[in-house]
Amino acid sequence: MKAIRKILDNIKPHVQKGGKFEMFHSAFDAVETLLFVPDHVTTKGSHIRDGVDMKRTMTVVILALLPTLIFGMWNVGRLHFLSHGETFEIMDAFWYGFLKVLPIIIVTYVVGLGLEIIFAQQRGHEVNEGFLVSGMLIPLTLPPDIPLWMVAIATAFAVIIGKEVFGGTGMNILNPALTARAFLFFAYPADMSGDKVWISEKADAFSGATPLGDALVGNFENIPSPMEMFIGTIPGSIGETSTLLITFGAIILLVTGVGSWRILLSTVVGALVMGGLFNLWGENAYMDMPAYYHLILGGFAFGAVFMATDPVTASQTNRGKYIYGFLIGFIAVLIRVFNPAYPEGMMLAILFMNVFAPLIDHYVIEANIKKRLKRAKA
Amino acid sequence: MTIKIKRGLDIKLQGEAEKTVEEIKAKSYAIKPTDFIGVFPKLLIKEGDKVKAGSPLFFDKYRENIQFTAPVSGTITEIKRGAKRVLLEIKIEADEKNLHEEFGAANPNDLSRKEIIEKLLKSGVWPFIRQRPYSTIANPGNDPKAIFISAFDSSPLAADNDLIVHGYGEEFQLGLDTLKKLTSGTIHLNVKTDTSSKVFLNSKNVQINEFSGPHPSGNIGTQIHSLDPINKGEIVWYLYPQDVLTIGRLFKEGKLNPQRTIALTGSEVLRPKYFKTKLGAAIEPFLENNTSDEKKRIISGDVLTGTKIDNTGYIGFYDSQVTVIPEGDKHEFFGWLFPSPKKHSYYRTALSWLTPNKKYRLNTNLNGGERAFVVTGEFEKVFPFDIYPLQLIKAIMIDDIDAMENLGIYEVDEEDFALCEYIDPSKTEIQAIVRKGLDLMRKEMS
User: Tag placement on chain B: N or C end, fewer CB within 10 Å?
Assistant: First the structure.
């Protein structure tokens, strides 16, 4: 530990402003602050500060994502062997999935963090931790066989167009991870939808449709049991299938207070209300599907827990959060049932509400302002 | 009236002052013009001049009737200036003669408002009366809609006002009688629900309001907001119990007697306790042989809102507490990842919420780097106002005057945001931002 500190202190003068390797300042700074909390002390205002910083807050989200990631790796391998009719052990499946998923994660982080460091260097900021989470979220929303160059392009698109043009972490309007997914979804639909892409190197004869895809075309006899869908042994994006482990992640986020319970609760309620309304309407088999199926189908749970609760792109007022979440759930189910082009409504519903979140906040705050003016007149 | 403050946070620190009072006569005293917001000092004395307690030292260029006087009799030893010749300290070496200017004892009930104001201005007691919005010294020409006195301080390791006013019932009531003449509105004396202080509870001519709940329940801003919030164009005045005592003594004794009881607190103080001294005392004799060997930060005031001073510094005009904590200028290996039991956090992502009664020895490390705002919905939990804190801060950052006004800037002060600043994982200097906004509004409105 002291040795590491010594090495850093030796390098430091060379990467400071005016040093020979000034262009690596942000990269050095990122590594240094990762290893050591800086010796910066308070100068103005409160002399003491909370022990938690942005790094720790973001780490908790990654921690909450790990169970789904590990399950996702196992499920990738499991489905692969299953489609070929081969027998396998748990570790075989995990190892297969691990080798499939790890390159996607590496590409995402290398491209994303590289861009972040370049932008930080240009702007004279410290490197922001936001991408640590985005970089984990992006792979989990992708199918296992996605070409790596697509991952690279999508990540670059998300970081530059989704985030940095607005000023970086904290300033973005759209959720960066979903921006990456939406980019791929519209630019390369063949690799992002249909029933071929969800099982890695699938045998042709095996049906690889996601339950969501089956529901859309009315193949209700193919839909697995609710228990299977809850546990997550179904085809889908790498991290989205296991509602069970996503729930576990949700508990971590809620207990630590990193994720907003208001958003999570209202998203679930919104989906159940819309699903319930469809049940009452009951014009076709999809409408008749029990409303709670929507919670365990496709990316709903993953989106609700890890995407909708992103504090930067969600509503920032507590009252606004209820409205924001409710509409996400409501619209997601609406798109699923009504729109034949997009089997998965969650991604679009969240992006849509990302755009509307500032408007919701505007009206919530306007109410507060009106109240204050009214008091002044009274 | 009883008011329960629900949102807030008590930060429990080591080094609470033991409830004994020791008298210390400091040799050196100083008045620091930087303690007064918006005051441009014009000197009336020079180095080497002899002054008595109550002799004028300087006045405000913008409001010439507001003057500042010497707390003790003695010699002006130094007029200390900083960058751009900003007046920092006017130092007085006390003599043993205890000479004082004569202002004449009187019963405030027999005097007119004008006569009272004149006495307060001349003696230099007036600057103790401050106003909201902006927290500047009150304007004698105004009729405030109410006067607020916070009789308890809820900030970390704060001085216990029950102890400080004990035995001074007469002076306190005289002070209240004086204030009563200054407003046509109510005088709110805000006590904590479990106070047993006879001085406070037996006060007359005031409305006694009981407050309970975590910090900032003792902040004047919180109390004003809960009782009678400030609308645009309205002014309230506020002061603290020791200030009321100084006013009372002026009328009882006919002289300036700025006696102050100071709580010396903090983890680096070996024997934390109360000291009886005078306004503007040098800190040195209090700390002598009484602090740890660590590198320390000495704060005049509390850890959330106080002013950093060095060990040759002086206690601030409005402060009744001195806190000494360790400096935190050390690197910490993976400090952000492994939750240290030595750190306190408001958040459940660290582990300190499992030990709510533990007392901490916190240092001045930022515990992270500065970032853009990411987390939302947390400031509201420690900010007991019907105001959107994050939105107001952002309005100030972009100098949007209309938005600031709409979002309630007249009701707040930088100290009301101290807890937001403490818990902010983005490590933003929120109090400085709020002060910037208040200064801007003050210029725009004048």
Answer: C
State residue B356's pLDDT score. 87
Task: Report the alpha-carbon distance of residue B22 to residue B163 in Å, rounded.
Answer: 13
Partner-chain contact A49 B334, CB within 8 Å: no
Does the pLDDT of residue A204 top 80, yes or no?
no
For an interface test with B, which of A6, A26, A35, A50 has the most B Cβ atoms less than 10 Å from its Cβ?
A: A50
Q: What is the mean pLDDT of residues A344-373?
A: 95
CB contact under 8 A, A48 and B363: yes
Residues of chain B where predicted confidence (pLDDT) is lower than 50:
none
**Contact status of A33 with chain B (Cβ, < 8 Å):** yes
Which pLDDT value is given to residue B335? Answer: 75
Domain boundaries, chain A: 2-34, 54-367
Residue B236 bridge partners (DSSP): B132
Q: What is the dihedral of CA A208, A209, A210, A214, to 10 degrees?
A: -150
Question: Is the model's pTM score more than 0.90?
Answer: yes
Asked if A52 lies within 8 A of B345 by C-beta distance, the reply is yes
Complex confidence, ipTM: 0.92
- CB-CB contact of B260 with B243 (8 Å): no
CB contact under 8 A, B371 and A52: no
Taking 80 as the threshold, does the pLDDT of residue A18 lie above it?
no
Stretch (H or E) spanning A36: strand A36-37
Is 90 exceeded by the pLDDT of residue A284? no
Taking CA–CA distances from B353, the nearest residue in chain A reads A256
**pLDDT-based confidence at residue A282 (cuts at 50, 70, 90):** confident
Can you tell me the mean pLDDT for A84-106?
Answer: 92
- pLDDT (0 to 100) of residue B185: 93
The chain-wide mean pLDDT, for chain A, equals 90
Q: Which residues of B touch A51 (CB under 8 A)?
A: 339-340, 343-345, 350, 352, 367
Q: To the nearest whole angstrom, how far is the Cα of B288 from the nearest Cα of chain A? A: 23
Nearest to B332 among A37, A170, A371 (CB): A37
Give the C-alpha separation, B117 to B182, whole Å. 8
> The tokens of B181 are what?
């003449």
What does the pLDDT read at residue A88?
A: 87
Instruction: Show the tokens assigned to A296.
Output: 């365990």
Among A27-31, A331-335, A348-352, B279-283, the minimum mean pLDDT is found in A27-31
Domains and CATH numbers, chain B: 2-253 (no CATH), 263-354 (3.10.20), 379-445 (no CATH)
Distance CA B139, CA B168 (A): 28
Taking CA atoms, B114 is separated from B182, B183, B186, B255, in Å, by 9, 12, 19, 18
Residue range A40-48: average pLDDT?
A: 89
